[in-house]
Design a protein that fits this description.
Layout lengths: L3 H35 L4 H6 L6 H28 L3 H9 L6 H17 L6
């Protein structure tokens, strides 16, 4: 159990940061798409055009990219320390790419850590 509490805290912090930034960027994108389509443009043109998008919107996606990179590092570190399977590790890492899923993955890891720390009855 050496180093696990620190790794879990680092993972938790990065899961929340990545989740908040991704949820904000995704919500903003949905609002921009709705405004774009109300103005009479097609959905396909939204992703190919650099017009009508605030600079802060692009910066937010850039911040998510770097936060996700750090999320990957902390997630792999924690997965190695907890000896997670490859499948579980991949699911935890992919959670940072789906809006709100990093919160779900973090909660799952937290429950697993609580389960491991709970005393067991000797029979």
């Amino acid at each position: 159990m050496k180093g696990i509490p620190g790794a879990a805290l680092r993972y938790r912090i990065m899961a929340y940061i990545t989740g908040v930034v991704l949820a904000t960027a995704f919500t903003w994108m949905v609002v921009l798409i709705i405004q774009w389509m109300v103005d009479g443009h097609s959905l396909a043109d939204f992703f190919s055009s650099a017009d009508q998008k605030p600079t802060a919107y692009g910066v937010l996606w850039l911040v998510h990219g770097w936060a996700y990179f750090l999320y990957l590092i902390t997630g792999v570190d924690l997965a190695f320390r907890l000896r997670y399977s490859i499948g579980r590790t991949v699911l935890i890492l992919l959670a940072g790419t789906i809006p709100f899923m990093s919160f779900v993955a973090e909660r799952s890891v937290h429950k697993d850590l609580a389960r491991r720390a709970a005393p067991t009855a000797i029979s």
